[in-house]
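Long-time lurker, finally posting.

We've been working with Efflux RND transporter periplasmic adaptor subunit (Pseudoalteromonas gelatinilytica) and I want a structural starting point before designing mutants. I don't trust myself to interpret raw outputs, so I'm hoping someone here can both generate the structure tokens and explain anything notable. Sequence follows.
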Amino acid sequence: MNKSILAVAVTIASLTLAGCGTEANQAAQQQHLQPIDVAQVLVKPVQNWHTYTTRLEAPQEVALMPRVSGVIDKINFKEGDSVKEGDLLFTLDARPFAAVVDSLKAQIESAKAALEQAKSEAKRAERLTERKAISTEQAESRKSTLRQREAQLLALQAELTAAELDLAFTQVRSPIDGVVSRANITKGNNVLAGQSVLTSIVSNQQMYAYFDIDERTWNQSFADVTAQSEQAVVMQKVGETSFNFNGKINFIDNQINQTTGTLRVRAVFENDEQQLRAGSFARIKLAADKVSEKVIVPERAIGTDLKNRFVLTVGEGNVLEYKLVTVGERYGSLRAITSGLNENDVIAVNGPARVGPGMPISPNTVTINSDGIAFTLSNNHSDLVAKQ
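Top reply, 14 upvotes:
Generated this for you. Predicted structure of Efflux RND transporter periplasmic adaptor subunit:
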């Protein structure tokens, strides 16, 4: 009897100890759960962004050449300076041209005197003809001489005008507002009219960016866009991480390039602060007209598994689940998900950096921050943000 009582007591004690051990293990497991930031996904109306590479071009560019041949007498600008239309840049030796002008002026005075004499003789011939004191042939000869003198004077006056233009052209002026390059030919050198490039000037108040959109993309995303729509675009320069420059489309070519299947488009950017230079490499972004709602998650929440993209969602019992996703456009630090998630999903915000699927976690609920990030692109340039 005593042995039976002892066996029962041992069994009860063993079960009690086992139960205490299980509770202790569960408590320890709860204490060691990984605290993970989780958040409910965002759902936003978005537009697809399209990115193109280009080089900036000045709306106006001039290879400055003299309109007369001569010797450079003076350079009147500082290389690299901004110049205005009409500013004097080069002066050629004007003395040969001034001498031609003076000579023609003297010839004109002589021609005027000869014309006056011819007029006088023609009038006399008319009076003598009335009295039949001169033959008709002589009278016609004097009238012919008058017309010749008039023509000679007109020819000399035209030559004088051309000579005065040549004299004026010895002062080579800027034909546009812009920035002047270096002087290619310096003082004392002879230059040829229409051949010698003295310097170059590019306008700098605006910059053009030409880029080519393939026909399919144009028809799917931009079919309703016209130059008058002033479709907004943003631009990023080389070495920059943000699209800081706002512009608009102001030209669309009138036909598709049959060789490349693309349409040439031009965007214009104001350059009031002189931060843009012609020839610079740049990236252009513009948004499609169509707006649709998409699930939005942080870029860092997306993991890569060989060739698949996935997101860890919080399932029943706070256990992480593996979900394959298809990613869409990037918006600042956020990314659109086109398939794989729904609006009620809660995700691990920092992705699979420290956790993996099937792992229980201790969730720390946070909110996905989308402040200052543009998901749609309007025609109002103030709506465009650098974070794009």
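Before you design anything, note these points.
The longest strand covers residues 49-57.
The radius of gyration is 43 Å.
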